[in-house]
Design brief:
3 strands; alpha+beta; 1 helix; globular; 3-stranded antiparallel β-sheet; 25% strand
Length: 71
C-alpha cells in the first residue's frame, strides 16, 4: 500500500491513464473533492458501496491510526 500526501491542485497518476487531482477542500480540511479522469471501461465507485474487505480494512485502519509503519 502506498500513502501519499498531496496539496490542492496536485495529482496522482495510476498506470498510464488514470489521473486523480485534488481540486477542493472545506475550511476544516476534513472533506475534499477529487477529480478522476479514467478510461470509460474503468469502474469507479465509493468504497462504502462494497462489502467490507477485512484484510484491506485492517491495513487502512493501521495506517490511519498510526499503528503501523508503511515501510
Amino acid at each position: 500500500m502506498l500513502l501519499l500526501g498531496r496539496n490542492l491542485g496536485e495529482s496522482i497518476v495510476i498506470g498510464d491513464n488514470i489521473y486523480i487531482k485534488f481540486v477542493e477542500t472545506d475550511k476544516s480540511g476534513h472533506k475534499f473533492k477529487l477529480a478522476i479522469d479514467a478510461p470509460k471501461d474503468v469502474k469507479i465507485s465509493r468504497g462504502e458501496l462494497y462489502p467490507p474487505d477485512t484484510v484491506q480494512h485492517e491495513k487502512l485502519s493501521q495506517i490511519t491510526t498510526g499503528k503501523k509503519s508503511l515501510a
